[in-house]
Amino acid sequence: MNVFYLMPVPDMDTRLPAPSPSSIRTYGRLRKLHIIGIPSSITRVLDDINLASLTALVIDETLDNDTGEHAESFWRRCFYQISVCHVIEDIEINQSTNRHWRHHEYYSLSTSWFVSLLNLKNMKSLAINGLALSGSDEDFHVLAGAFPKLKKLIVPSEYYSHGRTVASLFYFAQKCPDLREVKICLAFDIHKNLDAIQKLPHTIRVNRRHPLEKLYINSEFGEILQPIHMVQVAQFLDLYFPNLSILETYDSNTTETSNWTGIQQIRVALQASRIDGIRRAKSEKRN
Q: Could you give phi then psi for residue 121, rounded to 5 degrees?
């Protein structure tokens, strides 16, 4: 069997009986698993299934009023359970709603909860939807080093991203040579982003063939960026991701759209100039 869908529901809900442990454990060669349910049910399912052969996992967490209070313990346990999936390549985590909890604070995943996943060296796709994800540039440095085969990274967030800057992309350029698509949220202060770029190591390896094509960024600079700031960000992106074709914001804010449209226009001009220079050099060498 290639795909097995489980829809665990709260214990008091009798609409769908929970699968028995004996029936679940028969799926010893399960390759793809999609779980829909509340946190307590998700962890029970992961406990009962043989995950050794799993290559793809989708978790859809549904509404549970207690999730915020126990989010850390749930996700740490959940990731610990997934850590036995040594051949897993794709993990997708979805939440039905990003709700308020504890006096209107937001429920956010933390990169520190991912520790048990860092030995999964075959990871090619990590997608988190509907949840905020906290984590600094250094946290993302660790993630990039842990997943060298990564091709797709989706970690959108509207909250708790103040410690993460555009410089975090540098680590993925260095550590993930097959990365094709990234969706990420950055710190809201443009000066913090530019300072982080300036602090990157001076001795760096630039991969002119890096295949990243799609980059979606959420930011909230709050004002139209100065041209010099746009140029600095565009130069950084062109240096490490020379084959970008899409650079957009997934924020509907018109100011942010204008900022990233301007950065993309400058980056495209830099890319065209660089390609033209390479062609001219090759032509002169032949002649």
A: -75, -10
Whether the CB-CB separation of 62 and 36 falls below 8 Å is answered with yes
CATH number of the structural domain 3-286: 3.80.10
Q: How confident is residue 105, by pLDDT bands cut at 50, 70 and 90?
A: very low
* C-alpha dihedral sign at 245, 247, 252, 258: negative
For residue range 82-94, list pLDDT tens digits in order: 999 999 999 999 9
Distance, CA of 34 to chain centre: 19
Q: pTM for the whole thing? A: 0.85
Backbone angles phi, psi at 117, to 5 degrees: -90, -10
pLDDT at res. 204: 65
Alpha helix segments (H runs only) across 105-159: 137-146
Cα pseudo-dihedral 161, 258, 245, 129, rounded to 10: 30
Q: CB count, 10 Å around CB of 80?
A: 15
